[in-house]
Design goal:
Two copies of one chain form a homodimer. Chain A is an alpha/beta fold and 346 residues long. Helices cover 40% and strands 15% of the residues of chain A.
């Protein structure tokens, strides 16, 4: 592999050390430094670590002109088995098509950072940019990409970007507030929430929006009405079975996301509760299926396609040396009212 | 680009011509032939065409040992905006992960063959294999990939593979038969069908299965009950509005696929018809959402993940020089009975 490797042995005219200088400092040959720079795997791990250390110490920065990026754009998912992955892919694909790039798709298989194999692949294929979805790089990985001049952007609906890492997100807190206010305005007072995993900042932000909506309406938050899910259908179903069999069951549920809302639909169906007559449900995301379910789901629209487009565009621009106006872009949510919400039963 | 280009100027020991011989025949230099082989775009189109012609005429075949494929696997979709794209990606990703490959994702943007830009990219990045979904290569593109030793497989739920092209499909005819027989066994006699585009062989196969089921039950096919859709939600809705307002409306509909079934759900809801009490609906695909809609959808399961796994595995194996037992693999469908089908109203 090692597409169009540069050996880059000339003068370090712009303050970045030459490969020879790094080689001397690390006690290896210049071709070995070149191999490490290009993500070749035929270098002993210890040697590699020593070279990486010197690259970092000496502040090596690949000069733009010496290495043309490939016509690839890397896209890394935390996990692929979510209905919204397609929305994100579509957004990135829109930019890739316009820029004549192909997308390299990876899944970090549930880990929050991709593995070393992925990093090696990226260094070797030298993409025009990297977009990470709900996934992040550790400090060492960031350093590896930065020193090779490979820009990366986190598309981060979770809302928890590392310092200084360019990221695109959405205002989850405001979405939670809007969803809950909508239910309050319809007259609901017993409003439950099924959140996402408490380890994700987006879950916490939506929950905080829900709490603030209740508190500003002077309704105390009943902890029995707040459940933690994992954003999958089954979690909504399980929480729904529990909530809807409470003696004083809620008349409305903010389901945290659309898939959990569908789980609530199923629980309500099984218990003979009609939506929206007996129970109002609000989702979050506005996946295409939100329009198709029965009744069509009232939900908070998270503009996933636009977010992904913005993240991909940002990565491509960074690769061309353009500095973005802001390293954090939040795209606004909006409430989409359909037929799953109504006034509470009299 | 041009990852690890080989110039391959040695003897043509295994009957394949050398680059020099091709260069002579095409009246160009050997480096120009090398550029064309490696998908470089800095060659005039006319020159390129001349070289491609000689590669074909002289039967050039890249020797396996001379060019290591990259750690990439190309995946091309006809269009990405379908809920089942994620299922396919997951299947390919399962194989990619096991083989330590990354997926390069492309969309042929509704065209049935990918464009020249894509072909150039593939020749340059030299993937371990190519999987095409509902998309095919034209004869020239096939020749270009074959001469460079890049294997390709069509994942072809449409059921219309080109001669000799390795492909993985499913038995659409049998699925259509099973869906319709299920409705007949419940006692339905007025059974409508909303098919897919008539240009796709999978649509025709499902429709033929439907017809055969009716004919073997000695029920004449009523052409007013057969509609053509495009496999999207809206088509199911439109056909549903028409079918369900007929004076002698059907008591059951085989919807062609799951998304069209959801369109039928919506039409039925609007017209105040209950599923399954007033109307039975059967889908095709068994997307995750089929379980989540209300009522959960009876559908024909098309094992998309397994099909994609099989296609990706086949491409990887071909790249290693293993010849498959069969160039066409069909994976069986199965009927999944849920709650959207019941006996017709008395």
């Amino acid at each position: 592999m090692g597409s169009g490797e540069v050996t880059d042995l000339g003068e370090g005219s712009d303050n970045t050390p030459t490969l020879s200088e790094i080689a001397r400092a690390a006690g290896v040959s210049a071709p070995t430094v070149s191999k490490v720079l290009n993500g070749r795997t035929d270098v002993a791990p210890k040697t590699r670590a020593r070279v990486e250390e010197q690259l970092r110490e000496l502040g090596y920065q690949r000069r733009r002109s010496t290495a043309q990026p490939s016509r690839l754009l890397d896209l890394v998912f935390h996990e692929l088995d979510s209905a919204w992955a397609v929305e994100v892919i579509r957004g990135v694909e829109n930019v890739a098509r316009a820029e004549d790039l192909s997308i390299v798709l990876s899944e970090s298989a549930g880990r929050l950072t991709p593995g070393q194999t992925w990093v090696d692949g990226v260094l070797a294929r030298r993409p025009a940019g990297v977009v990470l979805v709900l996934s992040d790089l550790d400090a060492g990985q960031r350093n590896q990409l930065t020193s090779r001049g490979i820009p990366f952007v986190v598309m981060d609906p979770a809302g928890d970007p590392a310092d200084g890492v360019p990221s695109v997100g959405t205002n989850n807190w405001h979405g939670g507030l809007a969803a809950t206010r909508h239910l309050l305005e319809l007259g609901h007072r017993r409003i439950a929430m099924v959140g996402g995993p408490s380890g994700m900042m987006c879950s916490r932000a939506r929950l905080d929006g829900y709490r603030t909506a209740l508190e500003t309406a002077r309704i105390p938050v009943d902890p029995r009405l707040v459940r933690e899910g994992d954003f999958h259908h089954e979690a909504g179903y399980t929480a729904g079975r529990e909530l809807l069999t409470l003696p004083d069951r809620p008349t409305a549920v903010f389901a945290g996301n659309d898939l959990q809302a569908l789980g609530l639909y199923e629980a309500a169906r099984e218990l003979g509760l009609r939506i929206p007559e007996d129970l109002s449900v609000v989702g979050f995301d506005d996946l295409p299926l939100a329009r198709w379910v029965g009744p069509p789901l009232t939900t908070v629209r998270q503009p996933l396609v636009e977010m992904a487009e913005t993240a991909a565009r940002l990565a491509v621009d960074l690769g061309r040396g353009r500095q973005p106006a802001a390293t954090r872009v939040d795209i606004a949510t909006s409430l989409v009212v359909r037929s799953s919400t109504a006034a509470p039963p009299a």
